[in-house]
Design a protein that fits this description.
The structure is a single chain. It is built from five helices and six strands. With about 220 residues, the chain is an alpha+beta fold. It folds into two domains: about 5-65 and about 115-185, no CATH class; about 185-215, no CATH class. Strands 3-2-1-4 form a four-stranded mixed β-sheet. A two-stranded antiparallel sheet has the order 5-6. A hairpin with a 2-residue loop joins strand 2 and strand 3. Helix 2 packs across helix 5 (about 160-170).
Length: about 220
């Protein structure tokens, strides 16, 4: 079957198109956990596009965890390992991480949604439109396994679901069919690294090298 035919048959099994989309994302999300990295990347692109569209269905968003990768070129204090930690000056800060000791950082969020009366919970690195001041569930892996009954009713493998969903993303989710208002303009913030004692002129984080201003979108 062609991608449009797959989508037509999938929608016929749900009360509405909205619920058909949610069921397809939920099913593919479980199947993608054991897929190859390239397949995961293609699916998560679709998943984030869908999450952005249904933010009006968001009940709440939470932070599950903050993931950090530490700099390999220095010690955890952000200092050059060749120098004595107790007598080091700010001139000894690691240039690779600007003295933070952190090479990369990203936040995993929980999106709790109500899709026409059905509750869903999805994890994504995309920030929810509404964040509550409560921690989300932090696990090494999320989602359960399909039961035998669910496997028997699953008529599309991940490859078919992904082909169908990418068709929906490209052909169905058009700018005239958005379920969320236009996004708020980016918020510009001043980076605190400019006020750190001993900071060399011109040394700023990667995200704020243009005058110490960075964008929080």
């Amino acid at each position: 079957m062609t991608s449009p035919q797959l989508w037509e048959n999938w929608c016929a099994r749900s009360p509405s198109t909205v619920q058909a989309e949610a069921a397809a994302i939920w099913t593919a999300n479980r199947l993608a956990k054991d897929a190859a990295p390239s397949v995961k990347h293609r699916f998560y692109e679709v998943k984030d596009a869908w999450l952005q569209r249904v933010q009006t269905c968001l009940v709440e968003g939470r932070i599950a965890r903050v993931e950090r990768r530490y700099c390999r070129a220095c010690n955890p204090l952000g200092l050059d390992p060749l120098h004595d930690d107790w007598h080091a000056s700010t001139d000894d800060w690691c240039e690779r991480c600007d003295g933070t000791g952190i090479w990369d950082e990203r936040t995993l969020y929980v999106h709790s949604l109500d899709i026409e009366g059905t509750r869903y919970s999805f994890h994504s690195y995309m920030k929810p439109a509404l964040l509550v001041d409560l921690p989300g569930e932090d696990k090494e892996t999320y989602g359960g396994q399909f039961t035998e009954t669910e496997w028997e009713t699953l008529w599309l493998p991940l490859s078919g679901l992904l082909r169908m969903l990418r068709y929906v993303m490209m052909a169905v989710w058009t700018d005239n069919d958005r379920r969320i208002p236009d996004p708020m303009p980016p918020q510009l913030l001043t980076c605190h690294c400019r006020s750190w004692p001993g900071r060399k002129p011109g040394m700023h984080h990667d995200q704020c090298r243009k005058g110490g201003i960075y964008c929080l979108s």
